[in-house]
Amino acid sequence: MSFAKQDIEIAEIKSHRMKENAYIELKSRLLKECERVQKKVVDSAKAAMDEVQLALNEYGPNKDRYDSFRDQLIGKRDMFSTQYQKAHSEFTVLHKINSKNINKIVEFGSVVLTDSCKFFISISAGKIIIDGQTYYAISPMVPLYKAMEGMKKGDVFEFNGKKQTIQDLF
Predict the structure, then answer these.
(1) Whose CA is closest to 130, among 121, 119, 138, 122?
(2) How far apart are the first and last CA of the chain?
(3) What's the rounded Cα separation, in Å, for the pair 48 and 41?
């Protein structure tokens, strides 16, 4: 093998490593932003639940057998408790994503770049902007994910009558 050919191969390997490092950095930033967004949801639900519980404590025991105000407060507290538990469970799901993993197929933890959108398969956290680029954090439970699940770079999927090509995936 000539030195020129060997130099080209070394340069290609270095370029590939640099690209992988950029992918890992981006995925890590997306993950951190999802965690930040979800932490706000968790904290908000917890604060609302605690506020209603405090109102319940201040109101005291039932005033009569059919104390509708107390029942309303209990209903609100239980609703916020359910929201808190769901938000907390989604927050812990984020810890299962390995940002150093370069995915070859569309699966949980993948970043999928199509010809029209960019997706981070994680939780339903909505729109996330990193370096001026918009990504959509979507859950593996949504129909859009189901349309592209298991696909590879270059594959085409259709969702809501619109075809999209997976241009990159990691």
Answers:
(1) 119
(2) 32
(3) 11
C-alpha distances out from residue 19 to 22, 24, 63, 142, Å: 5, 9, 67, 29
The pTM of this model reads 0.82
pLDDT band at residue 19 using 50, 70 and 90 as cut-offs: confident
Coil, strand or helix at 123: coil
Summarize the confidence of residues 73-83 as an average pLDDT.
95
Return the beta strands (E) in 38-153 as ranges: 111-114, 118-121, 126-130, 133-138
By three-state DSSP, how is residue 164 classified?
A: strand
Number of domains in the chain: 1
What is the residue range of 148's domain?
A: 3-169
Question: What is the Cα Rg of the chain in Å?
Answer: 23
Q: Which residue has the tokens 């984020």?
A: 94
Place of tokens 């639900």: 45
In this structure, the number of other CB atoms found within 10 A of the CB of residue 126 comes to 11
